[in-house]
């Protein structure tokens, strides 16, 4: 890795590369409430393990829906509590399919390919519900503590909007239930999952939360949530599965463990160094933010900060 540390200059250069692309892509509308977001927003923040924070664009004011980015943090909570047992219920291979695809689940006996696609995330939320009795509460507590913001919460309009249009996730959950791979009632798991996805953060808050992984599993208060090995394993799953059927493309273009969400955010981790949050609401055809991907590619190009 290069020793380039002037993140202020780096972020200006990232902004230069991205500026003319802001507004590109298509805002997610299969959750109607998400379609109300201004497509011309863009934010980018870097939080370093030394405690510095650098940002450009709309990084602190506007909060956006975390959506699938929450899957990283629910997995971290489950691994910290139940260790390896979750891997009996979900695999850790790339799916090569879209994040809400059903067909693989049918011929793979209700065991999802990985925890970053929707069926895998539903299993993780189900496990977290069993482990804690309140999956979304446990996630909220973790995120509030790691971002330093006690006020993080789910946007109830987004959660309700997803519930009202959530038949695909419902189908995934009931299909897994039919194979005996759901331990709690499906409506309860879906309720926690929809509210989990609807938690909103700013770019700066997301970058701070990602430090949990950049610091190899160490929390903001200095305690260890995950073993160093489990933090590494989660980042490996992010790299191979975190951007769905574009994971190969992201490894090629960005070269960092990344997790995207249909709210337009992408979290990327430079292990041992920093956590990077990029946000632009317009998505590409695979459901990943077009401008956030471009910004992350520019970031690793300029800094040479990559795991490769
Ligand atoms: O379950 C869903 O479809 C959404 N709540 C989350 C999907 C998502 O963020 C996929 N991301 N690219």
UniProtKB/TrEMBL annotation:
<dbReference type="GO" id="GO:0004359">
    <property type="term" value="F:glutaminase activity"/>
</dbReference>
<comment type="similarity">
    <text>Belongs to the glutaminase family.</text>
</comment>
<feature type="binding site">
    <location>
        <position position="118"/>
    </location>
    <ligand>
        <name>substrate</name>
    </ligand>
</feature>
<keyword id="KW-0378">Hydrolase</keyword>
<comment type="subunit">
    <text>Homotetramer.</text>
</comment>
<feature type="binding site">
    <location>
        <position position="162"/>
    </location>
    <ligand>
        <name>substrate</name>
    </ligand>
</feature>
<feature type="binding site">
    <location>
        <position position="169"/>
    </location>
    <ligand>
        <name>substrate</name>
    </ligand>
</feature>
<dbReference type="GO" id="GO:0006537">
    <property type="term" value="P:glutamate biosynthetic process"/>
</dbReference>
<protein>
    <recommendedName>
        <fullName>Glutaminase</fullName>
        <ecNumber>3.5.1.2</ecNumber>
    </recommendedName>
</protein>
<feature type="binding site">
    <location>
        <position position="244"/>
    </location>
    <ligand>
        <name>substrate</name>
    </ligand>
</feature>
<feature type="binding site">
    <location>
        <position position="68"/>
    </location>
    <ligand>
        <name>substrate</name>
    </ligand>
</feature>
<dbReference type="Pfam" id="PF04960">
    <property type="entry name" value="Glutaminase"/>
</dbReference>
<feature type="binding site">
    <location>
        <position position="193"/>
    </location>
    <ligand>
        <name>substrate</name>
    </ligand>
</feature>
<dbReference type="GO" id="GO:0006543">
    <property type="term" value="P:L-glutamine catabolic process"/>
</dbReference>
<dbReference type="InterPro" id="IPR012338">
    <property type="entry name" value="Beta-lactam/transpept-like"/>
</dbReference>
<keyword id="KW-0007">Acetylation</keyword>
<feature type="binding site">
    <location>
        <position position="262"/>
    </location>
    <ligand>
        <name>substrate</name>
    </ligand>
</feature>
<dbReference type="InterPro" id="IPR015868">
    <property type="entry name" value="Glutaminase"/>
</dbReference>
